[in-house]
Amino acid sequence: MKIKVKAKEHKKEITEINTDFIQLQAFLKFMGIAETGGQAKEFIQDGIIRVNGEICTARGKKLRNGDVVSAFSVDYEIVSTINNEN
User: What pTM did the predictor assign?
Assistant: First the structure.
């Protein structure tokens, strides 16, 4: 018996920040992925969140320009407006 598995393609979103970085836990709350800091902590510790394709269990991970956070079939690319201003 052959089973065909089709992976759902991730939706992609661009997220602009106006600082050099944002911490992962704060990002999850900012984007509405987690309603509270406690919920964000659970998502991170349970290995649900990926940063640049790798599971990240560090709540304080600094997300910078170009980083991609994957959560619940959505890829969020971080774009820092500070790097683009001159």
Answer: 0.82
